Amino acid sequence: MKEEIKVTFNTLTPLWTGDAWQDNNKIRPSSLIGSLRFWFEVICYFSGICDEKDFNNGRFEKEVNRKNFKDCLLEKGNSFEAKIKCLLEQGIPLPSIIFGATNWKSLIEINQVEFFKNNFKRKPAGKIIPNKNWYFGKPSYQGEFSVIFNVEEKILESIFYPLLTFMDKYGFWGGKWNIGYGRLKIEKVKNGDSDVDISKYEEFKFNEISDLVNNKKFRDFIDSNISDFGCLTQRDKKIKLLKNIEPNNDSKKENEEVDLIKELLKIKSKEREKFNTDTEERHKIFGTTKAPPNDKNLLPQGSKILPYIYEEQGKLKGGFLSISGLLNLEGGSNE
């Protein structure tokens, strides 16, 4: 059975959920769910729950064989736990079980997004750094909004609440992450009339839904003690954080996140220049809209090092978050 969970967000940095025509005049549920799935896939890969053989054309996804699934349920019964076990025994990756695959419906859905149209702002706009092709997206959503999720009750405490906690601390929503967009603060979570304190959920208790999957704490796949930018470019399978970059002293409170984005992109631009002799590696790590020149079959590469803005004791701080370990998937399955 699914339960209705209302999550209230506020933007730390502008939110962009624009469509294929770059129109950004509403908050698109598909963009939010896509972000949740992406980061859950990152978590599953970096914590060892999924590996390269599970990776298929850019996702951890596999079609459910309907006949085999029905035959398995005839043997094991029709309980939620039996269904999960049958899917895992069929080799369905956990992200596909949680977020859906062909012949299997997602356990997490969005019922409604409540937002204020006046919160779509035309500023910031224009080039972020002179002589660089980074532009602010406009209009962008800035302010509070709420999302009503429908979530399978069996995964609320074991997966959904920990995933919300992860997104609040580390994740990005929507698009334009390469310029630091999409960092959201979770203000409130309600299950019916009850408030939920998600801060206590820093462990994915996967074995509550299946004894075939081990529990994972955040520290199992996050390294928050990085002190050198060069470490962010390495391909070890962890989310890596370089923190504690503050806005300049001249920054005004209302422009704090914009000034932080500018400062972080200046740093990122200088680090990117260190790879000028290796265009392919530069594009893979720092992003490009073009396929790397030595492999025309690769999809366009998004940046693996993201400007990361977070709130600490009521003050915005910045840094960088690296998912360069995803580059190990280049040799994954493409069946």
UniProtKB/TrEMBL annotation:
Organism for this UniProt entry: Desulfurobacterium indicum
Residues in coiled coil: none
UniProt-listed InterPro entries: CRISPR-assoc_prot_TM1795 (IPR007522), RAMP_III_fam (IPR005537)
GO biological process, one term: defense response to virus
Residues annotated as transmembrane: none
Protein name: Type III-B CRISPR module RAMP protein Cmr1
Superkingdom of origin: Bacteria
Keywords of this entry: Antiviral defense
